[in-house]
Amino acid sequence: MNDEPGPEIARAVAAAWPAGRRRWALQGWRRCDSTMDRARAWHASEGVRPGAVVAWHQTAGRGRLGRRFVSPPGGLYLTAVLPAPTRLAQAHRLGLAAAVAVRRAVAALGGPELAFDWPNDLMSGKGKVGGILSELIAGPGQPEPPVTLVGIGINTGPDPRVSDAAAAGPAAPLVMDGPVDRARLAALVLTDLDALHQVGDRDGPWRDVLAQLEACLVAGGRHVTLRLHDGPVVSGRILGLSADGALRVLTAEGRPVEVRHGELVRSV
Fold it and tell me: What's the predicted TM-score (pTM) here?
């Protein structure tokens, strides 16, 4: 399926941009392979920052660990290109800040209060209505200066499970009163993320982001089983988030551990 540029999408997001906020470069697509890949190529060729690629349909969207992010027509899929923090090791903070930005934007449009499913999903009830993927572009052979790509997918369209139930997993549509104004939602998310991007270098705003996510943390205080990326399984009670955004868990043996790379398998 061929990609289809959508300049009218960029114009609609620009028209919905809140007054007085810093303007971004915008690129729109009715259909593309991946906004993350488009943003990376755009930055490599033009050095765009801040900027965003916004699409209504992705044919090769992806999530964590290279998994497919089912992205049917009608959704909102975007990737922001932001200056990387001075301390590159803290670029991951922008992905968590994006979760706050999406929650606030959905609420501003009268949508449900979303919960945060560590490390990168947004939930409404038991359904995953959004996901976030951040990547640092830095180092030898990469364009200078370094940037962080923050990919965001929000299921504003049909149920992704209809397109591919196996790949969609717990995905579900975002249910709101009436049609979702995707251009306005995109503008609200991006301008809030712009205001929050300082979390990479400033600890005060970062602590505020952590506090907001802890307050809506899925399975907070409950017993969970987590599978680490290198294979082991950790079981225990979720205590909250650590100072660097890791998940704090108290194991059955009474030993506190911090999980930085893993995923929730089960909660009770």
Answer: 0.94
